[in-house]
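Run log, item B.
One chain of 426 residues. Sequence copied directly from the ordering sheet:
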Amino acid sequence: MPARANVRAMPRPMPEAPPVITATRPAKSFMRASLPDLAASSNEVDARRQDERGARLTATSRRLRAVRPVVSFRASRARGGKRMADRPIVIIGCGFGGVCLAIRLKKAGIENFVILERAKDIGGVWRDNSYPGCACDVPSVYYSYSFEQDYPWSSHHAPWNEILAYIKHCATKYGVTPHIRLDTRVESARFDEARACWMIETAKGETLEASHLVSAVGLFGEPTFPDIPGRETFEGVSFHSSRWRHDYDLAGKRVAAIGVGASAIQYVPRIAPVVKQLYVAQRTPQYVRPREEGGARAGLFWYKATPLFRRRERRRLWEQYENGYDLRIIPEEREAQERAYRDYLGKVISDPTLREKLTPGYPLGCKRVLASNDFYPAMQRDNVELVTDAIAEITATGIRTRRSEEHTSELQSLAYLVCRLLLEKK
């Protein structure tokens, strides 16, 4: 925005100091919540560390509250003669973020806005991803809007179609739907200094003027294909896992899945029982903790019918996830949880060679910790083989590793899960 933009930052008075937040659970509560059978080693970090963590959180909260500006928008007249209030706010993308912003605008009494969505339906990644086992690995009561908690989730971790229905429910309930323009792709956007507005070009040849432009396109809306030599030579049909081919039956096929990312740990256990052979090519092993199902809790009537309990559960999850970030700043706690994780692998993976291949060689917390209860059991199936050698190329019939091994015999499917590519031989 230029210097004359109608945005005024006013200092906010220092609020009362928030209460000191100290951990009431052992320092290993994040991993303990996921690994309840390892609670015996949870006292390795003393209470002093917990008090220091609470003091840091309090100090950070004070600083943020002190410097956070109060932003006000005045419907003044722009240099072009047209009031900013006469031009709409344009939001690009109608997923979780776009819908949330639209709801907040309506709650603030702002009705002059439009959401431009390139697809024929709303939902973002939860519209595009429908691969087998696709679900959110964050509990549903936490992975939802704070202002729309009274939703009848069927499970602790909702599947993709239920999350999509939730987004549509919110868009309808809060009156966002009339502001949505589907099948409208934004080709370009530039700020006109002379007129003090955004000029937005769509694929339909339209030119829209906007007082404010907000990008809510997300991070995973566009499939990314791997840069592996020979990918185009594979004699088959290719598709991204976010564009899963449900019309293709994998039963009885030989499949190669390249990568063990967040999508792979969900769909590999689903396809492993039906395929003839599954090769899982791994570049970097992941920390995969057990997923807290909470089935009994989610199934109880008083959980579904009591808003207060759902809010308390959301608060509990917030504290659990926020406390987990201490892994990066308290070496003793991180090391204790790494030991607990190795103990956990020793209990769930009996083969020492496979266990070593699946053990991460980097500190816990450097990458996102994944959650699954069936990934490690799936990797121990007789028809599943873990391939850790680097991939040299993709051939017409399979993949060739650096050690000149070629998984090619009757290969009928090849999947790349870091970038989530699936190639299938006809």
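Observations after the first pass:
- The longest strand covers residues 186-192.
- The radius of gyration is 25 Å.
Flagged for discussion on Thursday.
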